[in-house]
From TrEMBL:
Bias type Low complexity, positions: 273-283
BP-aspect Gene Ontology terms: nucleotide catabolic process; pyrimidine nucleobase metabolic process
GO MF term set: nucleotidase activity
Gene3D superfamilies per UniProt: 1.10.150.450, HAD superfamily/HAD-like
Entries under Pfam families matching the protein: Hydrolase (PF00702)
Highest classification ranks of the organism: Eukaryota, Fungi, Dikarya, Ascomycota, Saccharomycotina
Domain of life: Eukaryota
Region Disordered: start-end pairs: 263-283
Official protein name in the record: YALI0F26785p
InterPro entries, per database record: HAD-like_sf (IPR036412), HAD-SF_hydro_IA (IPR006439), HAD_sf (IPR023214), Pyr-5-nucltdase (IPR010237), SSM1_domain (IPR052791)
Length: 283
């Protein structure tokens, strides 16, 4: 736990970013995959078939294709990030998601100490997505894959979960709850000992047997209050004039959460409180 990361006394809700904060049908993962394949072709001199094959082999072996590139090839990380992650036209694809925002505002902060993003992407991608979908001011922190620190600590490696706990200021695994669209990451979380896991299961994705202890299945992130009702406050009742009871400055229950790129919490470059500097598209 870093000095400026307050200890989490209650539950820390760790949430994946890509294909989780927004739906997979947005096509971001496909665009990311195309850019990674193009990078393999242009920088490694491979044809399309062999580039795709190596991309997926590295992804399966290391959890993120970049890890394989760093291990086996001499690449420029700045160039990779510029040509892949930062080149995605997210501002044309993603928009403010009011239902998502309202759901996060309903978290019972007497039970949930922190809402923490946990991604295999780099910090710049993570903060772009959070801002575009309109939840950046509700997030208490971000754990991202630091492309400049090798070996890479990314999901599903145990080191990634250890890093997330340290940055979020939580030492008790029973207080770690996790949402992700990757069956591999959910299984890794369960094996690591995190208490509760919500698998955002898309059609055609790998199955996790129904009834697996500590794992629930959802089809959309907004299903969380249905499967974990104890973490959320009741939906606010709208008055006849359309306003909502029990809100202050747009937040439910009169609470104001951390702010990315601001004060009162938010995300530092190291994933802790302050301003942000930083699933799971094909990585």
């Amino acid at each position: 736990m870093t000095q400026d990361t307050p200890k989490a006394e209650g539950i820390v809700l760790f949430v994946d970013i890509d294909n989780t904060l927004y739906s997979k049908d947005k096509g971001v993962d496909a665009l990311m995959g195309e850019r990674i394949n193009n990078y393999f072709q242009t920088k490694l001199g491979l044809d399309k078939e062999h580039a795709t094959e190596l991309h997926h082999r590295y992804y399966k072996e290391y959890g993120i294709a970049l890890d394989g590139l760093l291990r086996h090839h001499n690449i420029d990380i700045d160039e990779y990030n510029r040509l892949v992650d930062d080149s995605l036209p997210l501002d044309k694809i993603l928009k403010r998601d009011e239902p998502l925002r309202q759901m996060f505002q309903r978290l019972d902060r007497t039970k949930v100490s922190k809402l923490w993003l946990f991604t295999n992407a780099y910090k710049t991608h993570g903060e772009r997505v959070a801002k575009l979908v309109g939840v950046d001011d509700l997030i208490d922190g971000l754990t991202y894959c630091d492309y400049y620190h090798t070996p890479l600590h990314c999901k599903p490696k145990p080191e990634a979960f250890e890093k997330a706990m340290k940055q979020a200021g939580v030492t008790d695994k029973s207080k770690c709850w996790f949402v992700d669209d990757s069956a591999l990451n959910i299984k890794a979380s369960k094996k690591f000992g995190w208490a509760e896991n919500a698998y955002l299961h898309y059609p055609g994705a790998p199955e996790i047997p129904a009834g697996t202890p500590g794992v629930v299945e959802i089809s959309h992130i907004e299903d969380l209050p249905k499967v974990w009702p104890d973490l959320f406050l009741p939906e606010p009742v709208k008055n006849t004039n359309g306003t909502i009871n029990g809100t202050t400055n747009g937040t439910t229950n009169g609470t104001t959460n951390g702010i990315i790129n601001g004060t009162n919490g938010g995300i530092n470059g190291d994933g802790t409180n302050g301003s942000t500097n930083g699933g799971n598209p094909p990585s």
